[in-house]
Amino acid sequence: MLSSTRLVRAVLPRVHRVPLARCLNTNAPENDTPKTTSFGFRTVPESEKETLVKNVFDSVASSSLGVHRLWKDNLISTLHVAGGTGDIALRILDHAREKYADRETTVEVVDINAQMLKEGFRRFKKTMYHNTPQISFHEANAQELPPSQFLDNTYDLYTIAFGIRNCTSIPDVLKEAHRVLKPGGTFACLEFSKVNNPLLSLAYDQYSFTMIPLMGTILAGDRESYQYLVESIRKFPPQPQFAKMIREAGFTTGEDEDGGAWTDLWGGIACIHKAVKV
Amino acid sequence: MSSSLRLLKLALPLVSEHGFTRTALANSVLHLPVPHAEPLSDSAVSALFGSGDRARKTLIHAWLDGGLESMSSTESVKDALHARLKYNEPVVSLLPEAFALLSAPESGVPPLDPLPMLKHSARIADEACHVSQDASLRLAWYTKRASLIGIYSAAELHQLTSPSTAPAFLDSLLATSNSIGSSLSEVLEFSSYVGRSWAGIIRSRGIF
Q1: How many CB atoms lie within 10 A of CB A131?
Q2: If both were cysteines, with which of A10, A111, B26, B110 could B40 make a disulfide (CB 3.0 to 4.6 Å apart)?
Q3: Is position A102 within any domain?
Q4: A61 labelled ligand-binding
Q5: pLDDT of A61 higher than 90
Q6: ipTM of the complex
Q7: Residue B135 lies in a domain
């Protein structure tokens, strides 16, 4: 029995020290004219994006429509973790414990938003992982992870879920992910993406731009934040383009097709991009 | 070339040692110009090549593509097919399982999928015609390739059970095919002469 458990742990994927990154910000270089970036369909100065994104997540920190959890369940088998309120960090630790009897896996949760981290910390206090080395929370910018705290070539798995589209500079996030991953480490990103089926795309657009902001108004009293969420999804690069960005950061991916460099979920409403640092 | 293809190429020489397995793919990074300290993790192999048996199928397809490349340096159909059989030799014992994996459908229905193996033989036949600069047109294009598909499939099947006699078996099949081909064309030509003779006789009798 003990030897079979050891065999399973030896052949199945192990997760050690996984960082989670969420909201990002860049400071415009002092000598240049202010750079602009997108905030949903709006163009805003880069220096303002962080504040705007923080405001959005302060608003939604304690709420969740729950639909994305269905996709997160798909991640557990691949040992992926999302940022935010520690949802997926908890699932990864539970998965490691229940499936592989692994109590050595550690997850490091990184977020630029202190409110989100507090929410995650509070959630973890109800679990067996609180006050253990398996979970820790750090406030940091995913575009510029402090090198003294997040060393080069350290982590086996880097995941980001529903967060990278809020980042000012996606290439910088990818570069940092590449830096901190060990050779052979896996990068995984769960994000809303492009629906390629025309009929589904039409229905999805209708739902996104009418129902979601309306539900945000009714449930949270904040239409603008939910409008931003919907618009930011449309601004995010489609699957092949994002896979190319991942490769440009130095990663190796599978072929540019569904089931290769990415896996579409629900026709592309969400998508998991995976890559390896070789 | 994408980097995952680069790792696939590095994994091919490892097939004889590790088989068509995820281990071969994982160990490919040990043969990089700057090798990794340890093989890829299972999740990394899944991320690059697919989960479960999909990764193994990816490796098998890459190996089959390598087989086509091994034929490119030849100039005749016979040499091309011999080169392809020779490519099989280091991994002959692994091929039955590899072909079975390719033929196993992902959904389970139908219980066996013959298309991958047909495609495998068809690609080899087409490559053999290409390297020999075959100039067949129309129906002859298809019959030539169909004939080579049958010949190569039979030779490869023979190789799985008796590797040492496979080259001689291939030669005998090619010789038989050539003699059948020439006999068939002679029969067709003789038949056309007979037909024309009868047409002439009938016209001379004034029947039509």
Answers
A1: 9
A2: B26
A3: yes
A4: no
A5: no
A6: 0.76
A7: yes
Tell me: do B153 and B182 sit in the same domain. yes
Give domain status of residue A40, yes or no. Answer: no
Q: Which residues of A touch B48 (CB under 8 A)?
A: 252-254, 274, 276
Chain B contact for A19 (CB, 8 A cutoff): no
CB contact under 8 A, A184 and B36: yes
**Domain residue limits at B14:** 1-52
Residue A106 to residue A7: CA distance in whole angstroms: 21
Boundary (domain end) residue, out of B52, B78, B93: B52
Q: What is the pLDDT of residues A73-121, one digit of tens each?
A: 333 333 333 466 788 888 888 888 888 777 888 888 888 888 888 988 9
A214 contacts: CB under 8 Å, gap ≥ 6: A223
Taking only the tens place, the pLDDT of each residue in A153-165 is 888 889 888 888 8
Residues B126, B80 contacting (CB under 8 angstroms)? no
pLDDT higher for B99 or A13? B99
- Cβ within 8 Å, pair A157-B43: yes
Q: Note whether B108 and B46 are same-domain residues.
A: no
A197 annotated binding-site participant: no
Domains held by chain A: number: 1
Whether residue B77 is found in the same domain as residue B175: yes
A131, two tokens? 């006050």
Q: Which helix (H) or strand (E) element contains residue B187?
A: helix B166-204
**CB-CB neighbors (< 8 A) of B6 in chain A:** 252
Residues A159, A88: Cα–Cα separation, whole Å: 10
Structural domain harbouring A248: 5-26+56-193+236-277
Domain annotation covers residue B64: no
Residues of A whose CB is below 8 A from B47? 78, 186, 188, 253-254, 274-276
Q: Are residues B44 and B128 in the same domain?
A: no
Tokens of B146: 């169909």
State which residue of chain B sits closest to A9, comparing Cα positions: B42
Strands A262-265 and A181-192 come out as unpaired
Q: Is A172 annotated as a binding residue?
A: no
Q: How many residues does chain B have?
A: 208
What is this structure's pTM?
0.74
Asked if residue A144 belongs to a domain, the reply is yes
- Mutation pick from B38, B48, B49 vs chain A, by most beta carbons of A within 10 Å, is B48
Domains: count for chain B: 2
* CATH label of the domain that carries residue A97: 3.40.50.150
* Interface contact B48-A276, CB threshold 8 A: yes
B53-71 helix and B115-131 helix, angle to the nearest 10 degrees: 20
With an 8 Å Cβ cutoff, are A183 and B42 in contact? no
Residue A35 domain-assigned (yes or no): no
CB contact under 8 A, A255 and B4: yes
